């Protein structure tokens, strides 16, 4: 084992990925459902693979960590299992390492500082990672298009701000992780305090986030109308109590079947990425 790596940080990243994948989240791969082209084991292997990259985060920085984690993931699965998660966890992890005190407020403040000083090198590494991961649903985006070869003439934060309207992960860069820190993490804690077991608390957090904003993976693939319909159905299940009540669980079962009726085109994967980031915050705040 390399004792120069931060294995506490690496372990939190790995654990967040496993917990997010296993939880019975709506429309996603989970402990009860695989996709035709992707299984739960793909997510587990991916979680293991990212450990060394995240262990060296403090030395390597955000962009290089993202790229090395994606590269390691591609060695164990041909499916994009974690790009959005890695884009979120890398700056969050570096901010946690550098924060002035152990409060969530200090962590979020430091996260803003980490994002503000991201360089063109970080954008270059991140763009290479995105091309390597080959995520679905990317459109043409002019000067910030990830398909453009060569070193980008802009910072990673600039690129993310340009994409914030159409991508939840990019939006978190633009607003200093508003959904993660102010919505997802508190909801996970609240769900656990209310007595839900961890898998259901994670699924409850995912449902709550899905009820707040349209999932941008769905929007990119199927359009705004589909994204809003999924959001509205999530809001209805949430209003019935979600995983906390019998009525809510019944609504979730029907909603989940509806999401899965056509393969995984309605996979709310961007919301799952935010959920993984909320788990990551929860895990590190317990250390």
Automatic annotation (TrEMBL):
GO MF: ATP binding; triphosphoribosyl-dephospho-CoA synthase activity
Domain of life of the organism encoding this protein: Bacteria
Organism ancestry: Bacteria, Bacillati, Bacillota, Clostridia, Eubacteriales
InterPro entries: CitG
Transmembrane segments: none
Protein name: Triphosphoribosyl-dephospho-CoA synthase
A matching Pfam family: CitG
The organism of origin for this protein: Desulfosporosinus lacus DSM 15449
